[in-house]
Automatic annotation (TrEMBL):
<feature type="domain" description="Ribosomal RNA adenine methylase transferase N-terminal">
    <location>
        <begin position="19"/>
        <end position="193"/>
    </location>
</feature>
<comment type="similarity">
    <text>Belongs to the class I-like SAM-binding methyltransferase superfamily. rRNA adenine N(6)-methyltransferase family. RsmA subfamily.</text>
</comment>
<feature type="binding site">
    <location>
        <position position="84"/>
    </location>
    <ligand>
        <name>S-adenosyl-L-methionine</name>
    </ligand>
</feature>
<dbReference type="InterPro" id="IPR001737">
    <property type="entry name" value="KsgA/Erm"/>
</dbReference>
<dbReference type="InterPro" id="IPR011530">
    <property type="entry name" value="rRNA_adenine_dimethylase"/>
</dbReference>
<keyword id="KW-0808">Transferase</keyword>
<dbReference type="Pfam" id="PF00398">
    <property type="entry name" value="RrnaAD"/>
</dbReference>
<protein>
    <recommendedName>
        <fullName>Ribosomal RNA small subunit methyltransferase A</fullName>
        <ecNumber>2.1.1.182</ecNumber>
    </recommendedName>
</protein>
<dbReference type="InterPro" id="IPR023165">
    <property type="entry name" value="rRNA_Ade_diMease-like_C"/>
</dbReference>
<keyword id="KW-0694">RNA-binding</keyword>
<feature type="binding site">
    <location>
        <position position="108"/>
    </location>
    <ligand>
        <name>S-adenosyl-L-methionine</name>
    </ligand>
</feature>
<dbReference type="InterPro" id="IPR029063">
    <property type="entry name" value="SAM-dependent_MTases_sf"/>
</dbReference>
<keyword id="KW-0698">rRNA processing</keyword>
<keyword id="KW-0489">Methyltransferase</keyword>
<dbReference type="GO" id="GO:0052908">
    <property type="term" value="F:16S rRNA (adenine(1518)-N(6)/adenine(1519)-N(6))-dimethyltransferase activity"/>
</dbReference>
<dbReference type="GO" id="GO:0005829">
    <property type="term" value="C:cytosol"/>
</dbReference>
<keyword id="KW-0949">S-adenosyl-L-methionine</keyword>
């Protein structure tokens, strides 16, 4: 298929057979898996996944690619959802193809929307068994970062709240066509079997984390002024002079939950 990669869809097509094999082996698909590929592109992963799993669902926004895939694979092998993954209801799909079970997601995610897409997918964590994604290496660095490191931030906190994550392999630009201007990496995300922390209000936690990391060089006291006062910091044993990257996930949860006790925040 002579398909011209489209910048608006963030298309960089994986073509290195060794990398493809490594990714499929990391996913380790089996017949009967409720396997879903996001952004199948020119089917570099699609074919090997179907060979191992027998059947695959795919979410693809590009109609030209959908037409190509429809010609190449039977409806029994590949079920295509021609929609924007950012607007797709993966929970409903789980109900349809994995009643009582969970989805396994895989894909080379468009780098231009990877962060919002990860947050969208995180909302379906209870219906997901695992996820394996190719992403910009810098994004993976932030996802798996430890507290008190330069890469640790909002993405780290909000994803580590829901998932255990590990880097699977690094991928050079030459593995793609056209080669991206950045290095890539594959990451595995496994939802925690039980919630790590009890979050009273997820929206409040998200707002708090956004505010805390608004200016990384400033202290918690400065970034959270008007949201958290020194008395509340003291009650939780958190030094307001710290920078946001010094707080662990559980401390952010504790701060957000503690706001329930502040009359003006009820």
């Amino acid at each position: 298929m002579a398909h011209i990669p489209r910048k608006r869809f963030g298309q960089n097509f994986l073509q290195d057979q060794g990398v493809i094999a490594d990714i499929v082996n990391a996913v380790d698909p089996h017949p009967g898996d409720a396997l879903v590929e996001i952004g199948p592109g020119l089917a570099a992963l699609t074919g090997p996944l179907i060979t191992r799993a027998g059947r695959l669902h795919a979410v693809e926004i590009d109609r030209d690619i959908v037409a190509h895939l429809t010609q190449r694979y039977s409806a029994e092998e590949l079920v295509i959802h021609n929609v924007d993954a950012m607007k797709f209801d993966f929970g409903q799909l789980a109900d349809e193809i994995a009643p009582g079970g969970k989805l396994r997601l895989v894909g080379n995610l468009p780098y231009n929307i990877s962060t919002p897409l990860l947050f969208h997918l995180a909302s379906f964590a209870p219906r997901i068994a695992d996820m394996h994604f190719m992403l910009q290496k810098e994004v993976v660095d932030r996802m798996v970062a430890e507290p008190s490191t330069t890469d640790y931030g909002r993405l780290s906190v909000m994803l580590q709240l829901r998932f255990y994550m590990e880097r699977v392999l690094d991928v050079p630009p030459g593995a793609f066509y056209p080669p991206p201007k950045v290095d890539s990496a594959v990451v595995r995300l496994l939802p925690w079997p039980e919630p790590r922390y009890l979050v009273n209000d997820l929206g409040r936690l998200e707002d708090l984390v956004v505010a805390a990391f608004a200016q990384r060089r400033k202290t918690l006291r400065n970034n959270l002024k008007g949201i958290v006062d020194d008395t509340l910091f003291a009650t939780l044993g958190i030094n307001p002079g710290l920078r946001p990257e010094n707080l662990e996930v559980g401390q952010f949860v504790a701060l957000a939950n503690a706001l329930d006790t502040v009359p003006s925040r009820r």
